[in-house]
Amino acid sequence: MKSQNPQFSPAIPLYRNHNNSPMLLLAASLSSPSLPSFALSHSRSVGRGSISAIFNPHCLVRRGRMENLLRKDFSLGHKNPSEDALRRWRKAVTIVKNRRRRFRNVADLVKRSEAERKRRGIQEKIRVALYVQKAALQFIDAAGPPDYRLSREITEAGFSIDPDELASVVRRHDMKRLNIHGGVEGIASKLAVNLEEGISTSSISERQKIYGLNQFTEKPARSFLMFVWEALQDLTLIILMVCAAVSIGVGIATEGWPSGMYDGLGILLSIFLVVTVTAISDYRQSLQFRDLDTEKKKIFVQVSRDGHREKVSIYDLVVGDIVHLQVGDQVPADGIFIFGYSLLIDESSLSGESEPVDIYDQKPFLLSGTKVQDGAGKMLVTAVGMKTEWGKLMETLSEGGDDETPLQVKLNGVATIIGKIGLGSAVLTFIVLTARFLVEKAMRNEISDWSSGDALVLLNYFAIAVTIIVVAVPEGLPLAVTLSLAFAMKKLMNDWALVRHLSACETMGSASCICTDKTGTLTTNHMVVTKIWLCHKSKEIKGIDSIEALKLETDEAVLKILLQAIFQNTASEVVKDKDGKQTILGTPTESALLEFGLSLGGDFDGQHRAFKVLKVEPFSSVRKKMTVLVACPHGIRAFCKGASEIILRMCDKIVDKSGKAVPLSEDQINLISKVINDFACEALRTLCLAYKDVAKGSVENEIPESGYTLILVVGIKDPVRPGVKEAVQTCLAAGITVRMVTGDNINTAKAIARECGILTEDGVAIEGQDFRNMSPEQMREIIPRIQVMARSLPLDKHTLVTNTRKMFGEVVAVTGDGTNDAPALHEADIGLAMGIAGTEVAKESADVIIMNDDFTTIVNVAKWGRAIYINIQKFVQFQLTVNIVALVINFVSACISGSAPLTAVQLLWVNMIMDTLGALALATEPPSDELMKRPPVGKGTSFITKAMWRNIIGQSIYQLAVLGILNFDGKELLGLDGSDATDILNTVIFNTFVFCQVFNEINSRDIEKLNIFRGMFDSWVFLLVISSTVAFQAIIVEFLGTFASTVPLSWELWILCILIGSISLPVGAILKCIPVSSNETRKKQSHDGYEPLPPGPDSV
């Protein structure tokens, strides 16, 4: 199947159509009079008309025609796309070479629908268990309980309850059966566990052996061979394999062994290489996604073991473990309530019911997968893994896969449009070649005389047409997005950002606004009490000396009530590890107060033994306070702490220097308010501590809302993280507005915002309540200027995010850590949950988890998001250039000479260069700092820009001109003669074509800037791909000529090929100097008046 290559001379003039848009018109004039007149007439009729229409990309996209086609069928929202949109683009994809590979990383809507049906079935079953349990239990009582017999293995291990019976008690909410076993204490006894100290770590293996592991059934990982098989499903490769087999059979019959098999074997070897490289690339991607999936499932819980508190993975939980639950936690296994306060559980993930459930002694059953909405408590684990309903539900959660990203969908559209053009050109090429062959036979009066050689010629034409489809259908475009995302997500995971949803990594590159929390994100989250106001005096806390001085000058009665307020009203604990060292478990704010209390000589355990807690109202971002009701020797006392101005309004008395409660005057209230503001202006988080003795006649266990006695105003320092100010400046330079949304005092918020560079002179700082009460028109007017929102509720954050997106069309990223932040995280284009301070509820609602809670990590995510977008643009520019040149050169040559200059084997190699290897080289380049000196990509912006079309068309013209000159005058110009002159020329053309792509790949590293070498030597993947391509090209030319239809070249011809290819670099530089009028290149001025930094030396 060697190419016959008569000389022809392509002329490539530039014309304008009637609408004055440049069109690349390819005409060909014959230089050999021996060619039939059919070729001349056909080339003239096709050259200026249909060839232009088919191959000219500018004609195709004139006036945004391609973008209109993409917007119509291939547009997808950033988040939660509708099923109609998902089905619409799938239906529009008509040209697919390998459906299994092309759609591997998109959602399977059929499986998703089936999984949803299964989920509903399981939820209905759970709903029956939860809400019809009484009737069900009556039926069970009538029939008699199931007969559970203890096995010898269970009794020998020291346990006395069967795993299935234990699991059924909780699953059925069977209080009667629980009471038969002696309640939670009886169950604990049968599980050989102490409810205070927890299990012994030495019994873990026995418990796992008898009661099971807390792991769920998952699909087995796909092996490498499965990816090989998937790569072989490519229809064009299958057709080529059939052609190769036929070619070998016919070739051996006509040319004999072994020369008759070389052409077919060459195709088979090329297919083997393509399949192997494709499978390796896909397999590596799958490993990256598997690592990411494993990381996403890492959830840790607090348990008691061997009398100590420790943090363990949920997968290490065993039956009998004592688990401590807090607000926002996910219940990690089925269990029974031991002890707790105001424990409110959201069971909607299991039952579908939105109403939360109160958990207490008479309703003690906790189900795996539910969420703690409020309160705190301890539970005894009774069932794990697949013995829980959540385990059965988890089997369906991964069915159907994740939603595809907007860029994947858009590139599927580009691939479809280009694929249709390629298919048309392939069919037309085959028709032209066959017609020429038949006309020539007719002119020789051989139309009725057919031989096996004629069949081999037609088979060769068919193989060329199929190979054109292989090259022309850019199957690698949508797959390159997945490759780039997988690479970026792996890198981000190493940089403390865990991407939960693929689209978020891509969308973050378009973010124009970040609404960030203050505590832990902009600040270190390491809090220390640095100032207090006690007994009408303000005191600075600096080291042990100031603590000792405070103890000496403070009355014992005051210290006593102060320590009670600190140690009784806390959700944190002071625990001892195995070495006896004290550790505080809790939030940074609580930890700071407990550290302060311990430094004053307080005894945490002693305080808790002396008082009995009656009721707890936990802190929440809505209440902004925490209250506890305790029974003490002299009666009932309530302790309250929280936001300073809120607690101050609840107080009508104050502790004096002797420890007595005295009335609080208006002047004192004003003075205390000034103290609070002074603390806040020093960037301190302010809290007030208060108490109230509850009269015996009051409603039982009702927490009072007024009449408190103020004890202390405390100022807690939380320093700004290093690098945050620079990161904020980077965001501003990148056209990203940064807004602080916090629950803190407005003066504290403003001080921190100024320190971070967020709050400017013309910016607005507003309180959540004021924002909440505004009309939509007022919000529209003020939102562009809001830079700080203080004392905000989760609803305020949600309103700000919603209106910023809908009123101004912004792409909004929002951070959150609490359970109540979930709606805002879900509503935003990108939800960013905190990995350290964040609850499991917040993490589940987020798209990205910031593992170190650091704002600079968020900026890094934005940088990678921009890198993904620009890398895919580079790859598209590179691949479309190869597409156009390969299509045009083969089609025109077929029309004129009756053969294609590039053989099937050579085209398969070119396809691998531009597809898998091209994606590896260009789609995995790391981000540069320059990416954050340009505005974000706006919604609706054309993906293939005019600058890209300029580069594509310019490089295509250059390459076609060079290849045409070589094809026409190559022998004369190179001084080739002899029997092997044609083979040498064909090899030079092939070698030149490949080196044009190699240098154009380097050219594609930057679409608009001249310096394409910046950062190139930092990208080892790019260097490896380029060097591998060049090395293998040399092997093909010098050693595999028998299979690839090439001959070895002299060193002079090698230098010539490399030199011609390298001219692509200055051609690219000249092209970039040609201005293109585009709205995309103008400076973008955002609604807050920001303009990107002016270009400097780095813009070159």
Helix content: 40-55%
Distance between the termini: 47 Å
* Proportion of residues in β-strands: 15-25%
The low-confidence parts are 1-63, 1079-1099
**DSSP, total strands:** 30
Which structural class should the secondary elements be placed in? alpha+beta
Count of runs of 4 or more consecutive helical residues: 43
What's the mean pLDDT score?
82
Shape, please? elongated
Whole-number radius of gyration?
Answer: 36 Å
Largest sheet: 9 strands, mixed
Descriptive report:
The structure is a single chain. By secondary structure, the protein is of the alpha+beta class. The protein is 51% helix and 15% strand. The strands form 6 sheets. Strands 14, 15, 18, 19, 20, 21, 22, 23 and 24 form a 9-stranded mixed beta sheet that branches. The protein has an 8-stranded mixed beta sheet with strand order 12-30-29-28-13-25-27-26, with helices on both faces. The longest helix is centred in the C-terminal third of the chain and has 43 residues. The radius of gyration is 36 Å and the shape is elongated. The N terminus and C terminus are likely disordered.
